[in-house]
Amino acid sequence: MYNRQLETFIKAAELGSFSKAANALFITPSSLIQQINLLEAHLGIRLFHRSARGVTLTPAGTSVYEDAKNIIHLSQIAIERAKAIEKKDGNTIRVGTSLFTKCRYLTDIWSRVVDQYPDIKVELVAQKSIVTMTSEPMADMGVDYDLQEGIYLEGLFNEKCNFFELFPARISISIPQGNHLFSKEKISIKDLYDEKIMMTKRGHSPGFDSIRDILSQKGSAIEIIDTEYYDINKFATCELNNYLMVTLDVWSDIYPSMRTYPLDTDCFVPYGLLYSLDPTDEVIHIIETAKGMVEEGNFFKNK
User: Fold this and answer.
1) Secondary structure letter of residue 149 according to DSSP
2) Are 266 and 72 in contact (CB under 8 A)?
3) Which pLDDT tens digit goes with each residue over 41-91?
4) How many angstroms separate the Cα of 99 from the Cα of each of 36, 208, 232, 252, 258?
């Protein structure tokens, strides 16, 4: 509903640097500068004073900055209001999906739901980048989508969504082909000694924190490489640098060139359905169906 160059402009104005703004937006500095130049050309005014020390707003730029923030805020309110109206009036469940939140078990649940509620429809919604999802956890839940399948990270998602657990996902280790451990049939904790291992930072999940404590025990000489989030680029980084990665058995299909081994520990992460704090009747039907299937023993993984 507004020119996306305004977001680039606001970030540059707030950080006082084109390069810092480019890093924050995960684009190249040249791309950011091009967007600013196009915006200035479109408006016919100069927005920034530029120097080797950074950038500052011109008087005209200051005026545009204040109004741009209001424009974006009002646009977001308008979109959320429209989506909320559509959500209440329709019988469609919007399911957020990504590489890490794809529907592995939801299709089985859905086959039960449509038998009882044939009028309910499903719309798959591509979720935002994992970077955005980690910096603003569950900000789109209930706005862009109503439900997602995946792991529950207490440190990130607590009080931001509801959660129903299907089963506990076992924490595992993924190993690149070039590593000497790749061909082993089983992997023990001692096998991991002296390795470099990437994993999510402390505080995201008690399960991940528990395996971190085990890997960090005295004498292991394991070097832990923290990451704020998991995405396909993190797997590629591990493969290229011969790092191991703490993952989950349910993620074994994400990066086939790395082999995933279950670890013989009592470390798990809850896996199930994450849904809005204010769920629609249609979402509640799915959750109730899932509960019934769990009670029947249909989700016995790792139990």
Assistant:
1) E
2) no
3) 989 999 999 998 899 999 999 999 999 888 888 887 777 766 665 555 558
4) 32, 20, 8, 12, 16
